Amino acid sequence: MELLHTTSIHSPVGPLFLAASAKGLVALEFDARLPGQQSIRPNPRDLRRENNSGRETKTGFDFEDSRQFMQKYVNAVEEYFAARRREFSFPLDLRGTEFQLACWRALLAIPYGETRTYADIARAVNKPNAFRAVGMANNRNPIAIVVPCHRVIASDGTLCGYGGGLDVKRKLLELEGALTRMLVA
Fold first, then answer.
1. What is the DSSP string of 12-71?
2. Which helix (H) or strand (E) holds 169?
3. How far is 78 from 115, CA to CA, in rounded Å?
4. Annotated active-site positions, please?
5. The pLDDT value given to residue 182
6. Which of 24, 43, 60, 88 has the most CB atoms around it within 10 Å of its CB?
7. Amino acid 52: pLDDT
8. What's the CATH number of domain 98-184, 3.40.30.10, 1.10.10.10, 3.40.190.10, 1.20.1090.10?
9. Are 9 and 19 in contact (CB under 8 A)?
10. Is the pTM higher than 0.70?
């Protein structure tokens, strides 16, 4: 069983769940998720057993609530929401297919306060016609906000599809000043 350290925090966009391995941040999830959206969190109905260190689930993870271990991640996320951080420098432990990883790395290259389209990301990963697949990779992004899938918009400039909901996407883009730039352009 792999141990994941976890914590939950309150944010301006609602409760957030964070999980990290010894290698880096594995998940940053919104408390409210859309139906069918994946989560690394244990579902109480799926628990096979509980032990002193946490919960063993079908995911193969052992979860341990550890605010102390997670503090550097919490501090960085809180600084982001206070508009005192534009980049995250802590390590990430991204897990996905080669295509998903390529998409998520392309998302990490989008500067704070800027947006890209799904077609832009498809071109960035050398799959220019794969904009729908890029959308699915964004949907599977396990580390919201830090891997900034909220910075991806439709080709017509509208906001579309976001795991935290369009209101949250709008708030994040407003925080970064990207929504103002979109309206001016």
1. TTS-EEEEE-SSSEEEEEESS--TT---SSPPGGG--EEETTEEE-TTSEEEEE-HHHHH
2. helix 166-176
3. 22
4. 149
5. 59
6. 88
7. 39
8. 1.10.10.10
9. no
10. yes
